[in-house]
């Protein structure tokens, strides 16, 4: 299935920033050692990112900093605006969950030029040297594990749907490619539709309803996060096919864990946002205190959660 | 006059913003976007081929005998992880490169059961060749070299593909019960749950009793 997607080019956005700078920004002096850490999150419209942002801010406060959370609302322009303000206000470090792997690079570079280190959390930017370091869920490997479980549960033959997250986010593709690195070796597993629902539960429900009208015979759905998996489940339930279609998610959200226990969701992959965000705050603190030798990227292991091991995760996170 | 100038300034600003946002929109198909894939000029298959040619043999040479690894894992797992294991980032999974010899005792769909010394049995995979065991168990692939995780993970896929093509296909065909097998391969073990009964080795080099190099 072919669908159209919209992405942002970076050059016009640079132009926008330059224009806004010419029109009104005069005060761009950088204040050093302000004892402030900024937490910039791609969206606070998703509980997973709320946990990521609040945990990072909480850890920064525990370390003695003033921490402020900025919501980019999944908008590269909004994110650029936040970076302008953060640079102008002279923050010591930025704990950053980017909106776009390519589009966010220039923001991180501008912060670096202003002497403010950026620590990426969960989502990656396509740069080796812009960020001080990047702590990233090993989404690809998680979805390789999920893909193998998918084959064992669904079988080596059947029709499935893939619902993607944000197309500008590397995590979307790392998850998709990890999954396909397994599934594509089974030619009788046919993907009847692949469509983006932007990691959004309601969009996933709408997308799934539309797909099922054209493809009534579906055995399984692979979703790029748990919110979309739960949206897809709602659509499948409404169509009276909840017992036939197996749903797979990613994140390890509480709702998905409960869904595995009740049989709504077949499997998910547990990420550890609290660990990632707290570690990022610790690394920022170390940077501020003089440490510089960070690995450019630090993958954080994820864990496959199924009915066989879900009890271990019902209270753990 | 000043208020007119301010209005013009605002109008220019609004117009510029709308123009830039319009120019920023790039409508394309999902397949086209995916094809771009941010990989630049990096070729995972070329990297994997060079790894197989240049780095793998030294990893095998320095790998412990499986029987020695198992012994230390039983006595003091922490020592085994420290001495021979490779971990990536924040993780509880440790990867090892190992070598050894034994007798094929049973042929299953997804693996061969091989009896090594002291009646210990291990499984050598002949299906579901996935994951990072070879890439990370070798200790030769540095994540800092890669622009992004996509490139880094594509290397695992390409290395696993080589393992399938160069080793697994022929092992699956010729690995029969009773044959002697000389092998090297990679495996993963969870630090949280050191279960030696379910070890699964992905082979990177195999020689069977008839001397035929696999």
Describe this entry's structure for a reader.
The complex is a heterodimer of chains A (317) and B (214). Chain A has 317 residues and is of the alpha/beta class. Chain A is built from ten helices and 13 strands. Chain A is elongated and about 60 Å long. Residues 1-8 and 21-31 of chain A have low confidence and may be disordered. By secondary structure, chain B is α+β, with helices and mostly antiparallel strands. Chain B is built from seven helices and six strands. Chain B has helices spanning 2-24, 30-36, 44-62, 66-75, 77-84, 133-137, 149-174, and strands at residues 25-29, 93-107, 111-115, 121-125, 180-190, 200-208. In chain B, strands 2-3-4-6-5 form a five-stranded mixed beta barrel. In chain B, α3 (44-62) packs across α7 (149-174) and α4 crosses α5 (77-84). Chains A and B meet through β1, α1, α5, α6 and β8 of A and α1, β1, α2 and α7 of B. β1 of chain A pairs antiparallel with β1 (25-29) of chain B.
Short overview:
The complex is a heterodimer of chains A (317) and B (214). By secondary structure, chain A is an alpha/beta fold.
How would you classify the helix and strand content of chain B by structural class? alpha+beta
Strand elements of chain B, count: 6
Shape of chain B: elongated
| SSE order of chain A, one letter for each helix or strand | EHEHEHEHEEHEHEHEHEHEHEE
Count interface residues per chain for the largest interface.
Answer: A-B, 54 and 42 residues
How many helices of chain A in DSSP terms? 10
* Beta-strand content bin of chain B: 15-25%
- Integer-rounded radius of gyration of chain A: 20 Å
The major sheet of chain A is characterized as: 6 strands, parallel
């Amino acid at each position: 299935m072919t669908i159209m997607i919209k992405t942002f080019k970076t050059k016009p956005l640079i132009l926008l920033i330059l224009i806004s700078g010419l029109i009104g920004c005069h005060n761009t002096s950088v204040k050093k050692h302000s004892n402030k850490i900024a937490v910039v999150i791609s969206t606070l419209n998703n509980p997973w990112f709320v946990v990521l942002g609040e945990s990072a801010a909480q850890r920064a406060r525990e370390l003695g900093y003033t921490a402020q959370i900025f919501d980019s609302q999944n908008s590269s322009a909004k994110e650029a605006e936040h970076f302008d303000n953060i640079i102008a206000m002279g923050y010591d470090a930025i704990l950053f969950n980017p909106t776009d792997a390519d589009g966010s690079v220039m923001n991180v570079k501008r912060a670096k030029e202003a002497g403010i280190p950026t620590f990426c959390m969960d989502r990656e930017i396509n740069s080796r040297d812009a960020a001080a370091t990047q702590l990233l869920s090993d989404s690809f490997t998680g979805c390789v594990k999920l893909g193998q479980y998918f084959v064992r549960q669904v079988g080596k033959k059947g029709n499935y749907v893939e619902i993607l997250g944000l197309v500008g986010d590397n995590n979307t593709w790392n998850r998709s490619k990890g999954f396909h690195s397994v599934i594509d070796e089974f030619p009788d597993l046919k993907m009847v539709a692949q469509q983006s629902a932007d990691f959004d539960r309601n969009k996933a429900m709408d997308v799934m309803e539309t797909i099922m009208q054209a493809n009534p015979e579906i055995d399984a759905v692979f979703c790029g996060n748990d919110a979309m998996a739960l949206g897809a489940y709602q659509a499948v339930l409404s169509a009276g096919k909840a017992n036939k279609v197996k749903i797979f998610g990613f994140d390890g959200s509480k709702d998905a864990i409960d869904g595995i226990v009740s049989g709504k969701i077949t499997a998910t992959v547990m990420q550890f946002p609290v660990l990632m965000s707290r570690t990022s705050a610790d690394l920022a603190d170390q940077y501020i205190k003089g440490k510089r030798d960070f690995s450019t990227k630090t993958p954080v292991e994820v864990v496959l959660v199924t009915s066989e091991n879900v009890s271990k995760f019902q209270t753990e996170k | 006059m000043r208020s007119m100038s301010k209005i013009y300034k605002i109008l220019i600003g609004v117009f510029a913003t709308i123009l830039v946002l319009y120019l920023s929109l790039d409508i394309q198909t999902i397949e086209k976007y995916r094809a771009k894939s941010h990989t630049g000029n990096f070729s995972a298959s070329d990297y994997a081929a060079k790894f197989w040619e240049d780095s793998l043999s030294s990893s095998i040479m320095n790998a412990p005998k499986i029987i020695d690894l198992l012994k230390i894992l039983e006595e003091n797992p922490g020592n085994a992880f420290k001495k021979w294991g490779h971990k990536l980032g924040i993780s509880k999974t440790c990867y090892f490169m190992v070598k050894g010899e034994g007798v094929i005792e049973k042929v299953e769909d997804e693996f061969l059961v091989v009896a090594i010394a002291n009646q210990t049995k291990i499984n050598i995979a002949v299906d579901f060749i996935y994951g990072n065991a070879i890439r990370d168990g070798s200790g030769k692939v540095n994540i800092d070299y890669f622009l992004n995780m996509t490139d880094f993970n594509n290397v695992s896929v390409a290395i696993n593909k080589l393992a399938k093509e160069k080793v697994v296909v022929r092992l699956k065909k010729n690995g029969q019960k009773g044959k002697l097998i000389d092998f090297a391969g990679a495996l993963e073990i969870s630090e949280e749950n050191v279960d030696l009964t379910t070890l699964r080795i992905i082979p990177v080099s195999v020689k069977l009793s008839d001397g035929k190099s696999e």
